[in-house]
Amino acid sequence: MGSSEQTWQTLSALPLAIIMFNEEQNRFYFNSLAQSLFSVEEYANLHDLNVDHLSLSDTHSSRLLSYDDFLPCAQKSKPLSITLANSKNNTLKLLDFKFASLSQSLFITICEPRTFKSH
Predict the structure, then answer these.
(1) What number of H helices and E strands is found in the chain?
(2) Pairing state of beta strands 91-101 and 106-114?
(3) CA nearest 110: which of 57, 48, 31?
(4) How far is it, in rounded angstroms, from Cα 30 to Cα 10?
(5) I need a labelling partner for 47 at 20 to 30 A (CA). Which of 27, 53, 72, 97 fits?
(6) Residue 39: which region, alpha, beta or left (left: phi > 0; alpha: psi -120 to 50)?
């Protein structure tokens, strides 16, 4: 078993929604919480990932984001606060995305839920 698979076994067990990207294989990994949140399968190749059912906006600027904004990659380091609308399961969530590099080719996004402010 490769080190990315071992890393994924450890990360996927954490009680947070986690997305891991293996740049060498162009492959995404979604743990069970991330699968539920984004309505995707556990594994997806870069070109096969379908997230057309998701709508993302920056909570600070209301700017619409593309799915590239929440996926892990080498260029990301600043956290994002987003509103996620999922048309597959009719949900609206507030999330904080935090990005990290695990190695030169492994990157993760950690998705932490937030609560809506009372009006």
Answers:
(1) 2, 8
(2) antiparallel
(3) 31
(4) 13
(5) 97
(6) left
Task: Tell me which residue has tokens 């986690």.
Answer: 18
The amino acid occupying position 11 is L
Q: Enter the tokens of residue 112.
A: 């932490």
Q: How far apart are CA 101 and CA 73, in angstroms?
A: 8
- By C-alpha distance, which of 56, 57, 1, 49 is closest to 21? 49
Tokens of 44: 């997806």
The segments of the chain whose pLDDT lies below 70 read 1-2, 116-119
Q: How many residues in the chain?
A: 119
Span 72-96, pLDDT tens digits:
887 788 888 999 999 999 999 999 9
Question: Residue 42's closest CA among 58, 10, 19?
Answer: 19
CA distances 37 to 31, 56, 63, 94, 102, Å, are: 10, 13, 21, 11, 23
- Residue 65 pairs with which residues in a beta bridge? 56
